[in-house]
């Protein structure tokens, strides 16, 4: 008798309902799931889907160079398509168990490459209109804060997942452990992987530097509870952390893309940069302060 393979349902391909945004749950994840089922049937790897999303996202950015609203709309549709694939690659990886270090590298850089393309296209579009070098300086400043917003949103999401699903359900990293692993890696055995690990260590150190009270709380858990948080704490922490998940989602893709699309519709793409620097930065600072206050309270209880 032949063995019948049963594909996991949609919810099984999600990281967690706690950390999913409304638009993702009702639009990107269901469509990504359908793409993942198709790619699985065609034996397409998650990494191939990620590479496809990179090219589609870069093509979207190029469309925003043009003054034509019709071409801009094509770019918007391409960017939505790219994000569908970005959803599908993770769902496909969880569906098939095909997870790899290369996949983590590609997935981590995909969105960055999309927005580098978008920023460059907007700058090239506005430079001849009298902005000159100033639009490039504005874009560089925006890009710096964009990276911080995305990094901290990802960090807080993985903190929540750690106490929701445990280590197996979270990608939260600890820089001392990463540095130990880095020392064991040989350049000759995997130059690309070790280079990525060097960048990832720096990325994680930056996240940890912004969260001193959380680091203090985790040190207490490691020393007093041997790294295994008691159940009462996990339940209480998740209750405090859950309201912050909406901010991690707003600082990720959907909110910023809505602002980008509005700025393009009114032919004022520079407004998108100001939105990131003002509104999203205010949201970032609020999220950090509130999370740190929660961690300080739990430090006393632990």
From TrEMBL:
GO terms for cellular component: membrane. InterPro entries: CDP-OH_P_trans (IPR000462), CDP-OH_PTrfase_TM_dom (IPR043130). One of its GO terms (biological process) is phospholipid biosynthetic process. The chain crosses the membrane at residues 51-84, 105-127, 133-151. It comes from the Bacteria. Keywords: Membrane, Transmembrane, Transmembrane helix. Pfam families: CDP-OH_P_transf. GO terms for molecular function: phosphotransferase activity, for other substituted phosphate groups. This is CDP-alcohol phosphatidyltransferase family protein. It comes from Candidatus Parabacteroides intestinigallinarum. The lineage of its organism: Bacteria, Pseudomonadati, Bacteroidota, Bacteroidia, Bacteroidales.
């Amino acid at each position: 008798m032949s063995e019948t393979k049963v594909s996991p349902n949609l919810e099984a391909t999600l990281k967690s309902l706690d950390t999913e945004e409304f638009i993702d749950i009702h639009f990107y994840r269901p469509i990504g799931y359908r793409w993942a089922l198709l790619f699985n049937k065609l034996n397409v790897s998650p990494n191939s889907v990620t590479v496809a999303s990179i090219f589609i996202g870069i093509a979207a950015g190029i469309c925003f160079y043009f003054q034509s609203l019709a071409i801009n709309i094509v770019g918007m549709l391409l960017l939505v398509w790219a994000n569908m694939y970005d959803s599908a690659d993770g769902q496909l990886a969880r569906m098939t168990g095909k997870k790899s270090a290369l996949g983590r590298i590609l997935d981590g850089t995909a969105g960055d490459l999309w927005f580098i393309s978008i920023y460059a296209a907007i700058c090239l579009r506005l430079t001849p209109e009298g902005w000159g070098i100033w639009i490039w300086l504005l874009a560089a400043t925006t890009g710096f804060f964009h990276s911080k917003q995305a990094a901290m949103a990802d960090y807080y999401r993985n903190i929540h997942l750690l106490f929701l699903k445990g280590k197996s359900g979270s990608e939260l990293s600890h820089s001392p452990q990463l540095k130990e692993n880095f020392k064991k890696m040989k350049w000759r055995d995997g130059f690309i992987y070790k280079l990525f690990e060097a960048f990832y260590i720096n990325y994680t150190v930056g996240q940890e530097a912004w969260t001193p009270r959380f680091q203090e709380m985790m040190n207490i858990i490691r020393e007093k509870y041997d790294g295994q948080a008691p159940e009462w704490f996990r339940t209480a922490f998740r209750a405090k952390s859950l309201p912050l998940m909406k901010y991690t989602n707003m600082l990720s893709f959907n909110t910023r893309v809505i602002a980008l699309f509005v700025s393009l519709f009114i032919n004022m793409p520079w407004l998108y940069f100001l939105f990131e620097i003002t509104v999203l930065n205010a949201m970032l600072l609020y999220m950090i302060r509130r999370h740190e206050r929660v961690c300080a309270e739990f430090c006393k209880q632990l």
